[in-house]
Amino acid sequence: MKTPTEMPRLKGFRFPREIIAYAVWTYHRFALSTADVEDLLAERGVIVSRETVRKWVNRFGQHFADSIKRDRPAANNKWHLDEVVIPIGGVKFWLWRAVDANGDVLDILVQRQRNAKAAF
Where is the DDE domain (predicted)? Predict the structure, then answer.
């Protein structure tokens, strides 16, 4: 994780820039909940509420989301559509995933009926 130097001023915040940056980065990078981020910080000895994490994400999150998207490689031109049948509550659903050549999932669709044309 790179701590951005152009992050907005943190005057008046109780925790240092590195802790706030780590919390917001993990929230966006790994699609965690605020409770999960709270637990990760607690494991490292930083006691913070999930409400505080939510406020940090609301204030600094867009900057981190932009940085992560910018650093991620662009999607490849070649991609394919995966189809999987999954039972949910005893009912069959079709899960479609658009996957690029690097193995990154581009999009996901779940349908009650199999309809490849709509999924494509």
Answer: 77-119
